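Translate sequence into structure tokens.
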Amino acid sequence: MKTTILGIFFILFINACQPPVDIAQVKKEILNTEKDFEKMTREKGIVEAFYYYAADSAVIKRGDDILIKGKDSIHHYYMEQGVEKAIVTWTPDFIDVSQDGSMAYTYGKYLWKIPDSDSTFVTYKGVFHTVWKKQTDGSWKYVWD
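Result follows.
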């Protein structure tokens, strides 16, 4: 009993010594991550950007409620979609962060422009929702998109 109580006090003491998380700063990190992600889609392509920003266990939901699970499966999915010339833009309208600063989510509007056979673009609009998880190296990767 004595060991258990001491253990609880130790955990409470360690947690009390942690500096508070600056939620506003973490929200800025997430916004910057979203904008860097979007920028990478233009500079290196959609396939590479969605692969780079995916956590190993990431899941994406796409047409007909299909779930693509895992970073490598996401990469394969986008390789098969023929999106090399597509343009995607988005902006978070809302960002929230967990109290410990380890998780966050965003949502907002997106716009996909995909060239068809005669070089005109077919446009798709919608709302995205992304869940972000802070990695051990301090970077942010999405776990749900």
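Note: The two ends are 46 Å apart (CA to CA).
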